[in-house]
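Reopening this one. Same input as before:
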Amino acid sequence: MTYAVTERFFRSLKTEKLYREYATKTAALLGIAEYIEDFYNSKRLHSALGNLSPMIFEAKQPCLTL
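Same output, byte for byte:
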């Protein structure tokens, strides 16, 4: 198994959020947490999903019924 997904996530995190100046440590923690929860996990385009955001990818999936 490769660590490509993890490496890609951390590369994006470092490029887009980590290497910037924050006023306080708390501001840094909140900014990074917000990026992960609100943007990276739901809105950012992912090549593994056909360059769709997870929200759009899930919306296009057929609903399963039991």
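So the earlier flakiness isn't reproducible anymore. For the record, The chain has a mean pLDDT of 82.
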